[in-house]
């Protein structure tokens, strides 16, 4: 799960990581009051969306007066912000963060994530911050330093010094960096974050370190342990269909093709998508309806698939292990009738009571094709989607 920059910065404060004074708002009327409250002479207005690259896309703007802050906030609130990290539709700006500006001497990069290969937490740092870290990694990998944490010893002082030297920090800045790095480690462990990124971490003209941007990702599987983090969720920043799917316990991911897929089990769903691709088609989604599926879930799954207007045909691939095939067939029939599915639906059933299940699906007068094996089903659905398109 992602959270907004202003929320991440509040967590930074809780863990002793310095951030600029700032406040978020959903209404431009408050903007001038906020600048008064914050003090200072200039401010930045920052669009709060779950994506980076805002600076280059007009989502971070400088203002020199309260009136200007209000004007910029008004123009930014309510738009869809498109950055190189969003899709072509962009993300809605429902809040802006108004922040004091700081004179920037240098922009650094610092992040903490989980390195799956070494099974350790790893710091990644670079003196070339503020820009695309992927480009730095690609073109000048020597500018990136890493430090892996021992699960027993944790973060050690020498590792902080190594990073501080690589970032060109001096004197008191070493201690300041150590405090920031330790804060990141404590935050990551306490809240089960999977990534914490500060880009840029700045050195101000008076030599202080400060997190100007903040991005935190959390491990979805640990959210049940952290109601405080879960409360920070903003569904407006996520795909509508994926939000609905979550409510019904369906694992759904929108993709770009035109063949809707309904499968039970994540592994089978992946294999099904592979096969569709192999037969020349393109899946419109990943959808795992789960092991113990029922009529209600199948109905909701159909509704989800059909709400995507790109879908031209549907492939249902269910293995009747926990649930029997005839029960699934009844569920599919009920769903096709209830949701008024007119698109061709190719169904491949396998497992317990498969004969009864197939019998139920044949000669229904509906646009349902009962396939006998998976390869054949994939070929058929690709052909049908091709005809419809
Ligand atoms: P993004 O990564 O989405 O582009 P950032 O928060 O990193 O957004 O902001 C982009 C740039 O704007 C930063 O690299 C920095 O140069 C400038 N900036 C952001 N916040 C401030 C601030 N409070 N004071 C001065 N400059 C800022
Ligand atoms: Mg940034």
From TrEMBL:
Gene Ontology MF, one: succinate-CoA ligase (GDP-forming) activity
Q: Does the keyword Metal-binding apply?
A: yes
Domain of life of the organism in this record? Bacteria
Which GO biological process categories is it annotated with? succinyl-CoA metabolic process; tricarboxylic acid cycle
Pathway stated in the Swiss-Prot or TrEMBL entry: Carbohydrate metabolism; tricarboxylic acid cycle; succinate from succinyl-CoA (ligase route): step 1/1
Q: Which keywords does this chain's UniProt record carry? A: ATP-binding, Ligase, Magnesium, Metal-binding, Nucleotide-binding, Tricarboxylic acid cycle
Specify the enzyme's EC class, one word: ligase
Instruction: Give the similarity note.
Output: Belongs to the succinate/malate CoA ligase beta subunit family.
Function of this protein?
Succinyl-CoA synthetase functions in the citric acid cycle (TCA), coupling the hydrolysis of succinyl-CoA to the synthesis of either ATP or GTP and thus represents the only step of substrate-level phosphorylation in the TCA. The beta subunit provides nucleotide specificity of the enzyme and binds the substrate succinate, while the binding sites for coenzyme A and phosphate are found in the alpha subunit.
Q: State what protein this is by name.
A: Succinate--CoA ligase [ADP-forming] subunit beta
Q: Which organism is it from?
A: Methyloglobulus morosus KoM1
Q: What is the lineage of its organism?
A: Bacteria, Pseudomonadati, Pseudomonadota, Gammaproteobacteria, Methylococcales
- What gene does this protein come from? sucC
């Amino acid at each position: 799960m992602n959270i907004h920059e202003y929320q991440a910065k509040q967590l930074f404060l809780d863990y002793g990581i310095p951030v600029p004074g700032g406040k978020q708002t959903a209404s431009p009327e408050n903007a001038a009051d906020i600048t008064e409250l914050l003090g200072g002479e200039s401010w930045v207005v920052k669009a709060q969306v779950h994506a980076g690259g805002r600076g280059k896309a007009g989502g971070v703007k400088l203002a020199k007066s309260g009136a200007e802050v209000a004007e910029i906030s008004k123009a930014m609130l309510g738009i869809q912000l498109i950055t190189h990290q969003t899709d072509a539709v962009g993300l809605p700006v429902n809040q802006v963060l108004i922040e004091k500006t700081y004179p920037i001497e240098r922009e650094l990069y610092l992040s903490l994530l989980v390195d799956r290969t070494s099974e350790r937490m790893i710091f990644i740092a670079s003196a070339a911050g503020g820009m695309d870290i992927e480009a730095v990694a690609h073109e000048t990998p020597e500018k990136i330093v890493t430090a892996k944490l021992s699960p027993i010893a944790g973060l050690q002082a020498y590792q902080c010094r190594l990073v501080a030297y690589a970032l060109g920090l001096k004197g008191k800045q070493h201690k300041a960096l150590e405090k920031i790095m330790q804060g990141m480690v404590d935050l990551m462990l306490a809240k089960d974050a999977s990534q914490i990124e500060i880009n840029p971490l700045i050195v101000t003209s008076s030599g202080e370190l400060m997190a100007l941007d903040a991005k935190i990702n959390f491990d979805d599987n640990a959210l049940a342990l952290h109601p405080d983090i879960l409360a920070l969720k903003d569904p407006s920043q996520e795909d509508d269909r994926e939000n609905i799917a979550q409510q019904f316990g369906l694992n759904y991911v929108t993709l770009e093709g035109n063949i809707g897929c309904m499968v039970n089990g994540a592994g089978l769903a992946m294999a099904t998508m592979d096969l569709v691709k192999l037969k020349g088609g393109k899946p419109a989604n990943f959808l795992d309806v789960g092991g113990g599926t029922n009529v209600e879930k199948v109905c909701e799954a159909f509704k989800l698939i059909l709400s995507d207007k790109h879908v031209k045909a549907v492939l249902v691939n269910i293995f009747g292990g926990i649930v029997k095939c005839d029960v699934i067939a009844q569920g599919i029939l009920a769903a096709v009738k209830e949701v008024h599915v007119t698109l061709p639906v190719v169904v491949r059933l396998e497992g317990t009571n498969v004969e009864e299940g197939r019998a139920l699906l044949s000669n229904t007068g509906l646009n349902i094709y009962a396939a006998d094996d998976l390869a054949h089903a994939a070929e058929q659905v690709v052909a049908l989607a091709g005809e419809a398109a």
